[in-house]
Amino acid sequence: MLPPDPNRPKECVDVSDVDATPLRRLTNADYINSVTDLLGDVSALNLDFAAELTTENYPFRNKAAEQQTPPVLTFQYLTAAEKIAADVVKNRLSRVLTCDPATGEPACAKSFIASFAGKAYRRPIDADQASVLMSVWQVGRDTGGNFNSGVEAVITAVLQMPEFLYRFELSPAVAGKKLIPLDGYDMATRLSYLLWNSTPDDVLLAAAQANKLQTPADITAQVMRMLSNPRAKEVVARFHDQWLNIGGIKTLEKDPAVYKTFNAGVATAMAQEVQSFVDDVMWKGDGKISTLFTAPYTFLNDTLGKFYGVTGGVTTTFARVDQAGLGMRPAAGILTMGGLLASEADRNNTSPTKRGIFVRKALLCEDLPPPPPNANIVPPVTKPNQTRRQAMANHVTDPVCNACHVMMDPIGFGFENFDAAGFWRATEGGQTIDASGNIKDSDIPGAFNGPVELGAKLAQSDEALACASTQWFRFAFGRDAAEKVDGDQCAVKTLQNALKSGGALSLVRAIPQTAPFLYRKIPEGGL
Predict the structure, then answer these.
(1) pLDDT tens digit sequence for 171-196
(2) Residues ≥6 apart with Cβ < 8 Å to 263
(3) Closest CA to 341 of 451, 446, 241
(4) Closest by alpha carbon to 29, among 179, 199, 188, 249?
(5) Can you spell out the DSSP letters for 30-55?
(6) Which of 28, 120, 204, 352 shows a CA-CA span of 20 to 30 A to 359?
(7) Strand 179-181 vs strand 427-428: parallel, antiparallel, or unpaired?
(8) Which of 44, 35, 46, 47 minimizes the C-alpha distance to 158?
(9) In terms of Cα–Cα distance, which of 436, 426, 414, 424 is closest to 330?
(10) Comparing C-alpha atoms, which of 490, 463, 488 is closest to residue 477?
(11) Is 147 in contact with 105 (CB distance < 8 Å)?
(12) pLDDT-based confidence at residue 274 (cuts at 50, 70, 90)
């Protein structure tokens, strides 16, 4: 029986199963945040880790099933651990040392190991772990000739241990139960990495030790505390950065012969536009998915305002600019932001196909088939006095292309007033641009004209609402929701209801009250 939640459908109260989550490794962001919270700022060490994989259908960098640890990453973990340990011992040993070694080195080493490793492993260490680390300290002490050398060896070792790098869940099984309720330490870890992308703080660990993370009220109290911390803003921003690929905007390049005013400064400002807007909607606005698609305002600074051709009321720092101040450029939330539109375009021309795919995959969570083997995937060349839409007409008439492109291009045509660099224009090739579009095979079928009308459609779409909820599920659990597992499907429905009624923060508050968060499943074959 799940705890009360007004967003949970009645049929989802007594779920029977959740899908098993594969063992999760810390993401690169998890790692940096965790070592920073444990040992202090490590930004000056220039730590480098292998890039994490994403796909169009799974945009997040935390998919547990894909979190392999190849030799190159193992070596990077070793290098990072050595750098961090040396830096800590040299510059801030007092941060981790809980005793004075002058009173007795072995006793002080044991105290340090219990404290540091317990925090790093996110639960008290057992006798075997303590013995292993004490041996590491002794070897380091003997090799380096002093107490601090042993401490450095322990830190280096702990930061490479599976107990630190992986999120092991050790809650004991209950006889006859398929689902295992989380103990306090597992709950503390899930909460901390969900809301802070980091290791549990002292408050969470103390609550776990006192058995104060078992009731809905206990969990809610911690969630509310953690959401009031600025680190929660960073997590919400990271979700949107990965979902919408905002980070990729900063490295955009366009053909300088075609887009003479587009440069790295503009690309950086475009990324900040989306981030500032999302932050405003999530933390100052209603946080609803409909607002992301319809808001009649954006955020600009003078660099981006100049590029867009907006001059009035724009300053050196980013500030809100309402539709009235944008001139001819429309505002429909993320759908009219130059960075996202430039990302879904080619280097020297628009791509209605890419923009249509973005709507279908990222915003509606639809799977699209790959192009047939005989398809010509080279984009058509736009001729003089021809619009891009006219050049691509073949996509929706050629039988080889039609089956797929009829799902994408008619949506993408609605963005044609925005060129490949995200600049709004009324004409192309001497002709007035036709921005009429159409959606088929959706819960919002039919014609629309331009992104404002498309945004109004998406704001009413249950598919878009369900998609955003599905994306949050993936981000929270590091996996897809299993289609035929009631606990997973009920969780998505609960998140969908929370997002619709109370916005994204309501959804985030609901995640820790869902079955996939409250329980872990015994894998086939036992623990």
Answers:
(1) 988 887 888 999 999 999 999 999 99
(2) none
(3) 451
(4) 199
(5) HHHHHHHHHH---GGG----PPPP--
(6) 28
(7) unpaired
(8) 35
(9) 424
(10) 488
(11) yes
(12) very high
